[in-house]
From TrEMBL:
InterPro entries per the UniProt record, alphabetical: MetI-like, MetI-like_sf
Gene3D superfamilies with a match to the protein in the record: MetI-like
Membrane spanning stretches: 6-25, 66-85, 97-118, 125-144, 181-200, 221-242
The protein's name in its UniProt record: ABC-type nitrate/sulfonate/bicarbonate transport system permease component
Pfam families: BPD_transp_1
Compartments in which it is found: Cell membrane
Keywords, in A-Z order: Cell membrane, Membrane, Transmembrane, Transmembrane helix, Transport
Family: Belongs to the binding-protein-dependent transport system permease family.
């Protein structure tokens, strides 16, 4: 308990030190405050932005797109990953192709999504799905392969049905790995949607951030970056908390 407190205290101290350095660099003129507004001004701007109806609407648009892409990518990727891990022939054929596809920067495909889907909801959800599904497939494959063979053998020797094997052997063993994969997948998902909004969109918080940057509105730009970072970190810590609660499931 004491070590956890010390670690948390150290993390808070680092955050405060970074914010203090940011404030000093801007206030003293070491860095041009027009290029790097102070931390206090940025957070004041953030508070003002969050009260604006247009920004709230854009946040809701982005949240809807992110959740839709995530809800599609996770089950599809999990099923494909499970099939790859369970079928040796399929794994030999598909794994090299998956690693090849994963290594390609997804941003180069964004113009194709715009050409196919146009500029709208489908384009952003589709690109978020595309940015996420490969990491889900690979993580699921790794999670399935981490299940101990002897546990499966015991379950099947006692006559466990496929559903019982899935929920009483696979799921408890895979859950910690899958939760970690979900955290990473959401980062890819959020990045994909924000990038699609910044590249070609009429709404969404990514569109707003791109607009602030183009118009050299540095306070709003930095406030938008802080906003997106806070959302990502909140989701990350929430899943991490669930992950610690479920760590005892690992068999």
């Amino acid at each position: 308990m004491q070590s956890t407190f010390v670690i948390n205290l150290a993390r808070v101290a680092i955050i405060i030190a970074v914010l203090a350095l940011w404030e000093v660099l801007s206030r003293t003129g070491i860095v041009n405050p027009r290029l790097l507004p102070s931390a206090s001004d940025t957070f004041a701007t953030l508070g003002d932005l969050l009260q604006r109806a247009a920004v709230q609407k854009d946040l809701m648009v982005t949240a809807t797109e992110v959740l839709a892409a995530f809800a599609l990518a996770v089950p599809f990727g999990a099923v494909i990953g499970f099939l790859v891990a369970e079928n040796r022939y399929f794994a030999e054929v598909a794994k090299p192709l998956l690693f090849f596809a994963f290594s390609i920067p997804k941003s180069i495909f964004l113009p194709m999504f715009i050409l196919v889907f146009g500029v709208g909801f489908a384009q952003k959800v589709g690109f978020g799905f595309f940015s996420t599904i490969f990491i889900v497939i690979m993580s699921t494959t790794t999670a399935v392969e981490s299940v101990k063979v002897e546990h499966l053998t015991v379950a099947r020797s006692y006559g466990a049905t496929p559903w019982q094997t899935a929920f009483r052997v696979y799921l408890p063993s895979m859950l910690p790995v899958l939760l970690e994969a979900l955290r990473i997948s959401m980062i890819f998902n959020l990045t994909g949607v924000i990038l699609a909004e910044m590249y070609a969109s009429r709404d969404g918080i990514g569109h707003q951030i791109a607009s602030w940057g183009e118009n050299f509105q540095m306070k709003q730009l930095l406030a938008g970056v802080v906003m997106v970072a806070a959302i990502a970190m909140t989701f990350n810590e929430l899943v991490r908390w669930v992950e610690t609660r479920c760590s005892h499931w690992r068999t």
